[in-house]
Write a structure and sequence with these properties.
Blueprint (H helix, E strand, L loop, with lengths): L1 H18 L5 E4 L4 E5 L8 E3 L14 E10 L7 E6 L5 E6 L2 E7 L5 E4 L8 E10 L23 E6 L2 E3 L9 E8 L3 E12 L5 E8 L5 E9 L2 E14 L12 E9 L2 E10 L4 E3 L5 E3 L2 E2 L2 E6 L12 H14 L3 E4 L6 H10 L2 E5 L18 H17 L6 E8 L9 H14 L4 E6 L11 E4 L11 H12 L8 E5 L24 H18 L4 E4 L5 E2 L7 E2 L13 H10 L6 E3 L6 E2 L3 E8 L5 E4 L2 E3 L2 E4 L2 E8 L3 E7 L6 E8 L7
Parallel strand pairs: 22-23, 22-29, 23-24, 24-25, 25-26, 26-27, 27-28, 28-29, 33-40
Antiparallel strand pairs: 1-10, 2-3, 2-4, 4-9, 5-8, 5-10, 6-7, 6-9, 11-13, 12-13, 13-16, 14-15, 14-17, 17-18, 19-20, 20-21, 30-31, 32-34, 34-38, 35-36, 35-39, 37-38, 39-40
């Protein structure tokens, strides 16, 4: 009873406070959930707080119950109530007071249910969510390197509204979409599509305002509509003369306000920010924002981190984006599905380009995985998830491309016709953006999407580095390939605790993965690809290490940063020197290879501040630039314990490491 009264008072306080600011009110339901696995029973229940996942790196597949009480005061009778879930992995079934509300199939997208007719006013209500991360043949992804941790791993909210509202039931969104049909320096025009849900008879006014960054209204429009038992799209046209366009260099945002009813006292109101920009690819194979070529320096971003799994907080996402920007990347790819809206809100503000994947993928580790079932249920789930991904991220100017598949193979049933259907669908839903895919195969599948990113690992898994140069020349010179708009993706695993005296290609399936091998691959690839300059974008696989039950070690350690999202590898500083033009980089590489077997060594330094001065002990040693931003000195003689110190010409930036020569150490 005490818990019920507390919840009732909290809800009333939230509603009263929210009513002063907005006609709709949200109430967090993240606290006080009872959690237990179905196979263990309610006797094992514990209280948890959302976001919550039941797995760590050793992913555990199961079905679990989440149960909590929530109070609805009698004064809310006549209101409409909705439950909004930010995400649950991977299948969720929702019940209120034992009555079935609905279910959602998909690991990375949000969903909303109306519960107006399921609640008891002035009483306690019981919310039960059954969540399962067990593999299913009708829920994407079927095959993935990333762990599906299970749980309600994003926020849950109760939304309280009036009867005549902007529908929150359109694919888990707020029900308002800004369709940008023409964007130039002279004009931005299109329609604001508002989905009306009006339970009462009569004419209902729907209104839209667009407010410029300086606070002045630049456009407004109103229209009338009748009763709408189901969400009814109403189009409100807009035109803005000489708009301030959004771009990575100047991420300008406008404010959109959409209301139902009287403008001064609406029955519902939705506000959000949007940026106006065009996205295209030109005949020179360059991605263009507002017609201007944009060099894409991208990273793949998985969904987990050490200690929290996929239950990431806003602070976690802020930290991740800060590290990405510090390295100099200007684009990120949400692997297998969208991250939370908070990350894209930040990307909107920071000018970071985003590629969001549909979870149609094949594991990079287990090449024999079945990833595609040609069944109606499988296809329908892919269509549904694609619509959710597009609509839930429609108003983010940072999102510039929709990913349709990743590393799918040619084995098994023909997937090409399904990919074509997905490609046609995404262009119907959103003609303002480009479709993209990542491919490690040759053939027709590379010619379906607007853009393709090639993950071929030429010159690393086989052959020599010179093959990368040959490959680039072939892409540029082949008439058939001239129809492709191709980028490149590459990566290699490297463990900071694994050291080696001799850099060599890592064999497939190896468990000893020296960081020096990873670094060598990135040094050669980055230099050759920059020299040939044939790709519209470069994508590093990955930004951070991530857990993977598909891998022998339980981890995919191809990140620039370790699984703790703190410990940076040498490759991070390589790209920081190459990509970050606003912050200087001076870094002695191979510092984790601290204990060495021989006194005669090479020394490597990454520098974006010109030729550094190297001191070995008390001796000055000259460095030579062997690749862009990579400086090296060979045949450097070390003492048993030697300090390596570097400084730039201005004497403003320094770095140093200590190297130990241990002749008893076994060479690897």
């Amino acid at each position: 009873m005490r818990r019920y009264i507390t919840l009732l008072l909290l809800l009333v306080a939230t509603i009263v406070q929210g009513a002063e600011l907005s006609p709709r009110t949200t109430y967090s339901l993240n606290e006080d959930w009872q959690f237990y696995f179905v196979h263990e029973g309610i006797a094992s229940a514990e209280y948890v707080r959302l976001p919550h996942t039941w797995s760590d790196e050793e992913c555990y597949t199961s079905t679990a119950h989440y149960i909590r009480n929530f109070a609805i005061p009698a004064t809310m009778r006549g209101k409409r109530l909705f439950l909004r879930f930010g995400g649950a992995q991977s299948v969720a079934e929702v019940f209120v007071n034992g009555r079935y509300v609905g279910e959602h199939h998909g690991a990375y997208t949000a969903f909303t249910f109306e519960i107006t007719d399921k609640v008891r006013y002035g009483e306690n209500n019981i919310l039960t969510v059954v969540v399962s991360n067990n593999p299913r043949a009708d829920v994407l992804p079927i095959s993935t390197d990333q762990n599906l941790y299970g749980g309600i791993y994003r926020d849950v909210e109760l939304l309280v509204t009036a009867k005549n509202i902007i529908s929150p039931m359109v694919y888990g969104t707020d029900g308002v979409f800004v369709e940008q049909r023409e964007v130039t320096k002279e004009r931005a025009s299109g329609v604001v599509q508002l989905h009306l849900s009006a339970k009462e008879e009569g004419a209902h006014m729907v209104n839209m305002r667009i407010i410029a960054p300086d606070g002045y209204e630049v456009c407004s429009y109103s229209a009338k509509s009748g009763k709408a038992d189901k969400p009814l799209p109403v189009e409100l046209p807009f035109t803005i003369d000489y708009p301030e366009l959004w771009s990575p260099d100047k991420p300008t945002m406008y404010r959109v306000e959409a209301t139902v009813g009287n403008i001064s006292n609406p029955s519902d109101k939705v506000t959000f920010d949007v940026g106006f920009r065009s996205v295209s690819v030109n005949d020179n194979n360059r991605l263009c924002i507002n017609g201007e070529e944009c060099a894409v320096r991208g990273v793949n971003l998985a969904h987990d981190r050490q200690g929290v799994g996929v239950a990431l907080s806003r602070e976690n996402l802020d930290e991740d984006l800060s590290i990405i920007c510090d390295m100099g990347a200007n684009a990120l790819r949400s692997l297998s599905g969208p991250h939370s809206a908070h990350l894209y809100d930040r990307c909107d503000r920071e000018g970071v380009l985003v590629w969001v994947d549909l979870p149609l993928s094949c594991s990079l580790v287990n090449f024999n995985d079945i990833y595609y079932y040609p069944t109606s249920a499988y296809k329908a789930n892919g269509f549904e998830q694609l619509a959710e991904i597009v609509y839930q991220n429609y108003n983010h100017p940072s999102v510039v491309m929709w990913g349709l598949f990743s590393l799918v193979s040619g084995r098994g049933d023909d997937v090409l016709s399904y990919i074509r259907e997905l490609n046609d669908m995404v262009h119907r839903l959103d003609p303002s953006r480009l479709s993209v895919a990542c491919s490690n195969r040759d053939g027709e599948l590379n010619f379906i999407t607007d853009l393709i990113v090639l993950r071929q690992d030429v010159g690393w898994t086989k052959g020599s580095y010179d093959d990368v140069a040959v490959w680039c020349d072939q892409l540029k010179g082949n008439k058939k390939f001239s129809k492709l708009r191709y980028g490149v993706c590459y990566g290699e695993e490297g463990v900071v605790g694994h050291t080696t005296d001799e850099v060599r290609r890592t064999e497939h399936g190896a468990t000893y993965l020296p960081e020096r091998n990873q670094t060598a691959m990135h040094e050669k690839y980055s230099a050759l690809i920059a020299e040939h300059n044939v790709f519209w974008g470069v994508w590093l696989d990955n930004m951070f290490d991530y857990a993977s039950r598909q891998s022998t070690s339980g981890m995919r350690e191809s990140g620039m940063v370790c699984y703790d999202h703190t410990s940076k590898k040498d490759s991070y500083y390589l790209y920081r020197a190459l990509w970050n033009s606003s912050e200087p980089t001076l870094y002695v590489a191979e510092r984790k290879w601290q204990r060495r077997a021989d006194k005669v060594q090479s020394v490597k330094v990454y520098s974006s501040v010109g030729r550094p001065e190297l001191t070995v002990g008390e001796q000055s040693v000259e460095l030579q630039e062997v690749m862009p931003c990579v400086w090296s000195a060979d045949s450097v003689v070390l003492d048993d314990v030697t300090t390596l110190h570097v400084v730039d010409a201005s004497n403003k930036h320094h770095d140093s490491v200590r190297i130990i020569v241990d002749k008893l150490r076994v060479r690897r």
